[in-house]
Write a structure and sequence with these properties.
- By secondary structure, the chain is mainly α.
- It is elongated, with a radius of gyration of 14 Å.
- The relative contact order is 0.17.
- Helix 1 packs antiparallel against helix 2 and helix 2 crosses helix 3.
- Helix content is 47%, strand content 0%.
């Protein structure tokens, strides 16, 4: 069941709420991430309360 309905780079507010609800019910971070359709690392960051990453480097074409 993949709940993601937003374009890449958009906030996943509803997904985060559902993810935290699942984890609160005893589902593992790995399994909750799979159910919601997010990367496991994103789920871990949500559990740690981290803010979304911001790109700070600019790629230049070579």
């Amino acid at each position: 069941m993949n709940l993601r309905k937003t374009a890449p780079g958009r906030p996943l507010v509803e997904e985060r709420r559902k993810f935290l609800e699942l984890v609160g019910q005893g589902v593992s971070i790995r399994e909750a991430s799979r159910i919601i359709g997010i990367n496991r690392r994103t789920g871990q960051e949500w559990m740690n309360g981290r803010k979304p990453r911001i790109k700070t480097t600019v790629r230049t074409g070579k």
